[in-house]
Amino acid sequence: MDASSAARPSLTDYLDASIEVLRKTRDTLPPALVAEAVDRVVTALGQGRPLLVCGNGGSASDAQHITGELVGRFLKERRALKAICLSSNAAVLTAWANDYSYESVFARQVEAYAEAGGVLLGLSTSGNSPNVVAAFETARQLGMTTVALTGEGGGKLAALSDVLLAVPSRHTPLIQQAHICLYHHLCEEVEARLAGV
Ligand SMILES: O=C(CO)[C@@H](O)[C@H](O)[C@H](O)[C@H](O)COP(=O)(O)O
Ligand SMILES: [Zn+2]
To answer: What is the pTM assigned to this prediction?
Structure first.
């Protein structure tokens, strides 16, 4: 063991902390709220309206992950679903951020793809990333439903979300891990309900 490793959590400690956040999420997040998020997404996609997904850093990967499951498949064979990742088009992101502002990179794409009755799903562990906040403001102006996956309290997204799924932690990586559980559940439910529709 090197001298500095004593200060860092062991893998066992890290897994224990992860389990604790997942357990608190299970015990505190109302199932009816999760069901409402599922309902909103099922309604939008069932009517051919888009699900737009955005986030930064690890949450950008999560946004890609979610849209990959829904455009392709999660567990079942079924039709493709109109899920669009706003965090993955490098040309759009770099051109818009370079010429205008990083703060508006998602809002601009919401303008491009929004349809009233669609859903914007934003992932932000702080709930305060300015580009996700701006995207929520634009989505609401354009008649979209907003669903947020955040950490404890929901930050600025709390006031801008029709459905707020806030993981009870302030630790970014552990919140992200709980987000993966929540969105895999969402994908499984959405897919099951839209199979054959
Ligand atoms: O993946 C991680 C940390 O696990 C980082 O890349 C993290 O996503 C970035 O610092 C984000 O910029 C954090 O933004 P947010 O979750 O507060 O919206
Ligand atoms: Zn990470």
So the answer is: 0.96
Give domain limits for the chain.
Answer: 28-194
- Ligand 1 pocket test: which of 124, 165, 172, 176 has the largest number of ligand atoms within 8 Å of its C-beta? 172
Please tell me if the CB atom of residue 131 comes closer than 6 angstroms to any atom of ligand 1: no
* Residue from 141, 178, 136 nearest 159 by CA: 136
Given a contact cutoff of 8 angstroms between Cβ atoms, the answer to whether 117 and 93 are in contact is: no
For residue 173, the CA-to-ligand 2 centroid distance in Å is 6
ipTM over 0.95: yes
The predicted-structure confidence for 154-181, as pLDDT tens digits, reads as follows: 999 999 999 999 999 999 999 999 999 9
CATH topology of domain 28-194: Rossmann fold (3.40.50)
